[in-house]
Amino acid sequence: MPGGHKLDGKFDEIVDLKRRGLTDVAIANYCSGVLGEVVTDRAINYQVKKARKMGLLPSNNKAIESPLIEEEDVASTKLVMGDSLTAREQSKLQKCLQVIAYGFSAYVEMGQALATIRDEKLYRESHETFEEFVEDVVNVARSRAYQLMNRAEVFVEMSNFLDKSGNTLPRLKEAHVAELARIENVEDRAKVWNSLEQSQQSGNMRLTAKAVRAEVEKHFPSEHKERNTARLTLRDVAANVKAVVALLRANEPKKALSKLEALAEALPRPKKA
Questions:
Q1: If exposure means fewest CB atoms within 10 Å of the residue's CB, which of 22, 44, 144, 145 is most exposed?
Q2: Are 195 and 208 in contact (CB under 8 A)?
Q3: How far apart are CA 152 and CA 14, in angstroms?
Q4: Are 49 and 7 in contact (CB under 8 A)?
């Protein structure tokens, strides 16, 4: 099982997380963040099956008794907002938030790991293309793989840029980076981030994807409007595709990907039924 030897050291933790009711995918995201490399849900499932054989977890047809909700805690107590948490409840809450935080931030490590596999052609032993490899082995759609790589690149590029000026970029959620990635230039992204940080420090704003989007629109309204409302003709689409092909021939895959993503943003979205 790929990566199994590294997960063996996390076996007890995986069992604990599974007992809490987390899915294999959620545990995989957590382990990816901790280990700094992609961990698939299949690899987690292998560890879970091993735990079941050892009697550490109930079989599939039995409900997991999660220690996050213990019978003595809720048997005869009505929980209402404003109640103080016990020390044990505070500990459980912090553990849950830690798992959630790892899940939100693991996209950077996943994107970087995928980029390494792609750039160094580490898929070549079993697959002809990177795209086939990520779908068969990593169990991630090729479009999602490229999305993760792009957003990891945007985060790292911004982090390095801000480091030079003595500022530190916190571990942003993927949804925040997705909004900042709409801005092509790293200097412009940094300007938007500095503005967001000032608003946070003054207590005027809570950092959400919606807040980041609004800040991007405020600083670059024409660019945002053009990307989201412009009606593209077939000639426009053809010209963009031609430009992408030219970039690929010039061995500029990152610029080609950026061009494709900009085109995807500009295309009209199908209306929901």
A1: 144
A2: no
A3: 26
A4: no
